[in-house]
Design a protein that fits this description.
The chain is an alpha/beta fold and 392 residues long. The protein contains 15 helices and 13 strands.
Length: 392
């Protein structure tokens, strides 16, 4: 009897997983055929579409220059450009942000003599990197506030044990792409300094933060001792990241980059895509952030008008061009409604996956980019009504 129940349970799980895989394939197909989306995400593009990013690469860099070898040439040009944008002495290109941040914090641990890194439990290394800090780099993460926001200055000052580095993810993605106020951020940094800790910014999406803070990039980055930025999350590059900070730190980081396997033979396609993002996408991000606020308000009004008993946009006014929508439905139910809407109307309102943070709850991320600028508030409300009509 027990074996039969176990087999039935296993078959049910496998059936649900197969349905989700099929829905993902349908969502990809719907995205590709949709006439209207809020963002054309690079990760669902074809190889041909992605390579088109380099069709006018001669506008970005002298293509008659010799290709890079192990980090010279065009790689050094990108590093210099990033250092200039962030106002730091130097920068180093890395194949991944995971590697860049491990190297940065390992270097700081050697300098402070303390391998403890204080961070939020929703920060990327704690949620998405399989405990890489402890398993690979010998670092010891300790968790600050569990609230869905960045830690406060009081929480930094009152933390019960010493730490060598404070890591702040700006914005904190898994809490809804949230940022502190400028005053709160400066107070947090000062509190860490009072404890003789260095401050490192996980700025994967720092490019998107200037509207919220009302400050230029170099002033934001200038609060920290080191900063990591991504070239694909906000800028649509092929991949890659940069670590920026004092020249001595960056020189040491390049040594560890080699040891970690990041001394790649040639990287010019990825670097060219990063230069394209800095040239073409970075100047448009403030427009995306401002329009995301229009979209978020229209989503709230649309769900209220459609009679959904409870719906939430997190944060209520987006801090960046990305935010969350929470609905009181099973995640599979809303995922199916989103795909059906796209298949039947050509409008894909929710292009990203729906997760289930708890029973009867569903949450999805919203990303507003160039395609989303074409949507008016009324367009969003109409799309919400269409979506809700497909819910049970």
């Amino acid at each position: 009897m027990a074996e039969t129940v176990e087999q039935d349970s296993r078959e049910l799980v496998e059936s649900v997983e197969e349905q989700r895989k099929q829905r993902f394939e349908r969502r990809k197909a719907a995205y590709r055929s949709a006439r209207r989306v809020l963002a054309r995400s690079s990760f669902l593009g074809t190889l041909r579409e992605r390579l088109a990013l380099l069709e006018t690469a001669e506008e970005l860099y002298d293509l008659d220059e010799t290709a890079d070898l192990y980090g010279n040439g065009i790689v050094e040009a990108l590093e210099a450009k990033v250092a200039g944008l962030l106002g730091t002495e130097a920068a180093a290109f890395f194949p991944t942000g995971t590697m860049a941040q491990q190297v940065a914090l390992r270097c700081w641990a050697g300098r402070t003599g303390n391998p403890t890194v204080a961070l939020h439990p929703l920060a990327h290394p704690e949620v998405h990197e399989r405990h890489a800090f402890t398993q690979v780099s010998g670092l010891r993460p300790v968790r600050l506030s569990s609230e869905p926001r960045l830690p406060t200055a009081a929480e930094i000052r009152d933390f019960e044990e010493p730490f060598g580095a404070l890591m702040l993810e700006l914005p904190l993605r898994d809490a809804g792409f949230v940022l502190p106020s400028w005053e709160e951020l400066t107070e947090v940094v000062q509190a860490a300094r009072e404890r003789d800790a260095v401050v490192h910014f996980d700025g994967a999406r720092l490019w998107e933060s200037t509207v919220h803070f009302g400050r230029p990039l170099h002033e934001i980055a200038g609060l920290a001792d080191s900063v990591y930025v991504s070239f694909y999350k906000s800028l649509n590059g092929f991949g890659g990241a940069a670590l920026a900070g004092p020249r001595t730190l960056i020189e040491e980081a390049k040594t560890w980059r080699h040891r970690y396997g990041g001394q790649v033979f040639q990287q010019f396609p990825t670097v060219l895509s990063a230069l394209a993002g800095l040239e073409r996408e970075l100047p448009r991000l403030p427009d995306y952030v401002r329009h995301a606020r229009v979209v978020a308000a229209a989503l709230r009004e649309g769900f209220a008008a459609a009679g959904v008993p409870w719906a939430r946009v997190q944060p209520e006014e987006p801090h960046t061009n990305e935010f969350q929508v929470w609905l009181p439905y099973d995640a599979d139910t809303v995922a199916e409604a989103a795909v059906l809407q796209a298949e039947e109307t050509g409008t894909l309102l929710f292009g990203r996956a729906w997760d289930a943070p708890g029973p009867g709850l569903a949450v999805a991320e919203i990303d507003v980019r160039a395609a989303g600028l074409e949507w008016t508030a009324e367009d969003v409300k109409a799309a919400v009504a269409e979506f809700v009509s497909r819910l049970p």
